[in-house]
């Protein structure tokens, strides 16, 4: 079958939600790809004053993206409480994903998120080896070491990008590792809030070479076409270097923006969307569609359909696609909804 299907899967998973401060819509579509490897998280009420949105674009498999969608936001909240610093919490949570995916517990969690055979095996091993006796979702604050046949599991060979937008009061925190992207619309103008981490960037190239890697045909070690990601343990094996200095790093760039009534909406999307539309083109498209469409997930669906290629000849428009659109309420609207 190869990496592409004979015809695209255009069924979409879509969702809408919101609170007094914002509303959001999202949509994801498998498209031409043989497998769906994207995942996402939308948590409008992470705590009383914080909203969390994340897009995770998997490569080499879906499990790391699904793992991040399940756990990254819970770790951000945990470290924020511990450290009292949201920027530090975001950074620590990214590195924590790699730590949590190692060993017996990490192997079992990934197995449960994987295909049917691995899922069954993971459940059985969980029943045998887990000190709690069974699998539970209530493990996010404690991640105890577990003995078992996969205790030496170094982590997953597959990986994912992670682009996260956290809105707290009037501040927007954007954390990004990889080539998914976050863009803010301010008075109709696209404001880029993330950098696509590609191997040919000077900072990325320097780290890769110092860690003993190489770049061939624009790819790390001739394999990956991005230079930061969660997972991908084979690129993180230098025991003499810290996690942020490995060939492939999950260290996120973090941008902080003070929001005002000039800021209209935020887009978080995987590269399958950005390969087909520039930042400003997508902002313009959304502005035009919002004139007649009030459902934000429907706007996202139209973007995905717009980006889907008619054939697989060019490659662009043939990737999995996931997009989250967050519309910010004006301060007057927010105050009105609270009274």
TrEMBL record:
The keyword Manganese applies. The keyword Hydrolase applies. SMART domains: PP2Cc. It is an enzyme of class 3 (hydrolase). Coiled coil: none annotated. GO terms for molecular function: cation binding; protein serine/threonine phosphatase activity. Its cofactor is Mg(2+); Mn(2+). Residues 23-328 form the PPM-type phosphatase domain. Belongs to the PP2C family. This is protein-serine/threonine phosphatase. The lineage of its organism: Eukaryota, Viridiplantae, Streptophyta, Embryophyta, Tracheophyta.
